[in-house]
């Protein structure tokens, strides 16, 4: 029996093998130099934002946490008092009243704003995608909160406001929108809804535009109505974007301040004394910076807990669009 001989595997000449190894090392060095260059360029672009984060966010936060354990009034050095500020906060009825007022504001603002913004976004997507119309929807957001508050303060004035003139012209009694304990917080919430709803609607509109139109066309072929498509297609696929928008709007709503400051200044009878306004009064009205810092830390903890809870309940990190 004849056994076929197999030829030995071919090998590069020694000089060629060395040359190939040198070329690979040279290529690796060039790639490493390019990566270092890209890293330096990225660091240059990131540096301003990082500096702003450290100076205007991280350092004030750490400084505020430290001051929450002290007695400090700007005129004397901070005096360490441990948990005294937090104990005072727990037993402070005005703090809890302010927290309740803030929660009431958040519920009204988020509920009305989210439903209104979602309706506007769906109408923009299903009926028209005019850039001009989107610009009109966004117009109130371009106005500052202070200007919006002053304008609405004039419109809703009980005696001279055009809003109450219309109410009186319709035969109803004038309504003290910003001077009555029952009306004040809902009125402030609706003022901020008016200002922010366009921006929120455009965020949701961007999420709606990411949903493939083929799904709606297939549903129409199957005879689905617009209402059914909204609940079976739009809402499930919009959920991650809606969750992020809710997190952003809830955080912003808990920090309401300027609208209250220019319209009611916390009145009447503390009916609009939201937590941010109470913190401001403690710090810059009574110079109790330690106690104000403790309440700020408490607000930070509440916002962190609410954000984590919202993120998990809404499954914001997962999408049904696969």
Distance between the termini: 62 Å
Strand-residue fraction? Answer: under 5%
Determine the fraction of residues in helical runs and give it as a percent range.
over 70%
Measured on Cα atoms, how large is the radius of gyration? 30 Å
Characterize the overall form: flat
Structural class: mainly alpha
Q: Are there runs of 5+ residues with pLDDT below 50, and where?
A: 1-7
Name the helix and strand elements from N-terminus to C-terminus, one letter apiece: HEEHHHHHHHHHHH
Number of helices: 12
Question: How would you characterize this protein structure?
Answer:
- The protein has 322 residues and is mainly alpha-helical.
- 71% of the residues lie in helices and 1% in strands.
- It has helices at 14-67, 84-90, 93-126, 131-138, 145-155, 162-169, 184-209, 213-221, 226-254, 258-263, 275-285, 289-313; strands at 70-71, 79-80.
- The longest helix is centred in the N-terminal third of the chain and has 54 residues, at 14-67.
- It starts with 13 loop residues before the first helix and ends in a 9-residue tail after the last helix.
- Residues 1-7 have low confidence and may be disordered.
- Belongs to the binding-protein-dependent transport system permease family.
